[in-house]
Amino acid sequence: MMNADLIQKVKEKLDNRQRLFLSPHPLLQRYISCYVFYMKPNPYHSVITTTLSIIPDASGCIVFTCYEDRMQGLLWGPTTEVKKVENSLADRTYFFVEFLPGGLRAFTGMGLAELRDKVVNLEDINKKLSVRIMEALRSTTCLSSFASRMNHLFLQLHEHHSNLNPLILSSMEYILQHEGSVRVKEVAHKHYISERQLQRSFQQHVGINVKKYASIVQFNQTIHRLKRKQDLPLSSLTNASGFFDESHMISTFHKMIGLTPRTFKENMSDFYNDAHKFPCRI
Asked: From CA 132, how far away is CA 200, in angstroms rounded?
């Protein structure tokens, strides 16, 4: 089980949603969004929903579930569709390593297309990594030491694998700057590469094609905007998020989560996405 002293230190720092975010080392921040603890809520806190829908973010993560007698580590590949998970925070503790798009490849060397939308046991991919994270959770007694151990571990892993392709990094940044409202042809032209070459590199390094990545960026930023300004009219949300028209936005919501924007707005607590991965301008 997780170290009792570490549990106490985490509990002292939890936000009002029972989360604690830790920043990775600066040299890792191109690849890792954050380390996150989800802890047991206050005993008087009731979990509103029994399932939580994870909004696709093309990123992937490592998730450790800490039971009373054991731990389980799972590796989530880049997601392009909603994943429903049991919202069991009332009786379990979780530790996440949240990757940025393409970041997982920097620590595994794997082509990410083969992991797209899959959840696998971490030890089947990298048993040593799984063991070392569990050791840190069991033996570390303070947050600063735990963060240092995670940073050291991932910096060591990164030494054995190549950096993200500069072309891919630049292309992803360009798409993010345009909040996903950009065509594949434009991205390829900007980087002096054919669309075919760009698509091939994206599939290898990010795990999805360029058009899908841009759509995920646009959708996540629309969600962030809606969460920050819940009274924003749909027409204004459409324009601010770069959709052609309201029908285009509604169609995108249906494709991504199977709901209209209005229905999503009424059920936002049932969904989760990481605001650190796709920051948007309001």
From this structure: 34
Q: What is the pLDDT of residue 55?
A: 93
pLDDT, one tens digit per residue, over 204-256 is 999 999 999 999 999 999 999 988 888 888 899 999 999 989 999 999 999 99
The alpha helices in the chain, defined as continuous H runs, are: 4-13, 105-108, 122-139, 143-159, 166-177, 184-190, 195-205, 210-228, 234-240, 246-257, 261-266
Of the candidates 137, 29, 33, the residue with the CA atom closest to the CA atom of residue 93? 137
- Find residue 66's DSSP bridge partners: 71, 93
Contact call for residues 36 and 28 (beta carbons, < 8 A): no
Q: In what order do the strands lie in the sheet with 271-272?
A: 83-86, 51-54, 271-272
Cα-only R_g, the chain: 19
Mean pLDDT of 178-203: 96
First and final C-alpha spacing in the chain: 42
Surface-to-core class of residue 263, CB atoms within 10 Å of its CB (0-12 exposed, 13-18 middle, 19+ buried): exposed
Domain ranges of the chain: 4-159, 166-272
| Residue 201 near residue 167 (C-beta atoms within 8 A) | yes
Which CATH code of 1.10.10.60, 1.10.287.180, 1.10.3660.10, 1.10.10.10 fits the domain covering 166-272?
1.10.10.60
* 74: β partners: 63, 121
Residue 172 to residue 99: CA distance in whole angstroms:
14
